[in-house]
Predict the 3D structure of the following.
Amino acid sequence: MNKIHNTKPFIDEIAEKSILSALISDDIKIVQKILDAGIDEFHFAYEQNRIIFLAVHNIISSGGVPNLITVTSELKNLNELDTIGGFVAVTEIINEYISGWINTEFYIERTIEAKRCRELRILGVVLSQSLENPDSKSLEICSKIQNQIDDIQNSKITMHVESIEQSANRIRDELLKGSKSLPTGLVRMDYLLNGGLTLSELVTIAARTSIGKTAFALSLAYSMSYTNNIKVNFFSIEMSKKELFLRLVSFENDTEFLRLIREGSDNLFANEKIIHQMDNFFNRYKQKHLHIDDTSDPDVDNLILRMKILKRKYAIQIFIIDYIQLLTTKSRNETREREMAEIARKLKLIAKELNIVVVVLAQLNRESEKRSDRRPAISDIRESDTIAMNSDIVGLLHRPSFYGMETYGSSDTMPTKGTAKLLIQKNRNGQTGDIPLAFVETKAQFTNLDLTVRPEYEQTYDDEDPLLF
């Protein structure tokens, strides 16, 4: 019997019955293919088809094989055989929709497409109702709608439970492929972190005021995008885009150039050297993948919406946020600590969902300044312990020269002038330790510490130092 596909995009009766026919084919491989595709009862718009699918699922869950006899028996047990049209209805599905056995993947795709169209139709109604509410805000609506669209795009609820053998083989293959690390260009940092920053991780970099959080983050963004062509987005809630660009320009030019730019002399357009240096920087910048976003909106949900858009549009691999304690939520949390806990959890989840690195900067309290060596600790992070708890990596910037100290302490005689350390005090998937860095104060830039230039520091390293010059 020839069947005509339903012309409504959100209902596909032929596809539904073809899937059921394939499920009752007594071929466990076809059954497994359908379940692995994430087909569940919600993919069936017709109640009779949904009931038959649930009967099939019960049989599979109990270790049986679905066929005409077992499915009919299960429908009797559920008191649903008459509801779906009796034994004849099951027989008709098997005999008249046999193409489902042959073109299984085609009908899987059609069934999933029909479900998505139904969900989008419902979403359109929700959107229309939201817009009719005079108290609604457009950005809040966009955020909610975008999240639901993402759920529709990514929905795949699999009922297949892996066997030990299947699980072992899959994990083995994933381990052999290795985890994707994004090199920072800071060689000792990459060495300690086994190649760099890992996708899906939340990284916190914290420091006291004026120690150089923004400078470090911008140096990191510059190094990753310019040295390794990694796609970076820098969210600055506090500093303007102009000020950040001024710092970037200074990375590639001398201090005299920076002084002239900061003074803002009226005749800079007549200075050919300045024009040449500026053109060189911006021509190079246009070829790189460093996005600067000085958004003034501190709402974390709106920020996450921007991250999703930027990820989709530009394939951004790492997002840097300056800084986490400036973010807020719409939730009515009883305390600031609970609000920060919610923000940290959301940022960790979005890192995993988008398979990106999220680097957040954080303020430290004054506790480190009470210590004789001024060395910060992970417990010094302001407002919430959950920032560190949700982070995969926590690094603390330590720059004793800011306090007029000449060494890092009685047991660490490394000179502080022109140097800094990033103290990795938490690393969920690797080792911890101190990372020595060079700090160019006139440019507010962190770079690799060159031992050939500063031989007096060489005694502080062992023979396994990864940075060889």
In short: The two ends are 78 Å apart (CA to CA). Residues 1-7, 156-160, 453-463 have pLDDT under 50 and may be disordered. The longest strand covers residues 419-427. DSSP finds 17 helices and 13 strands in the chain.
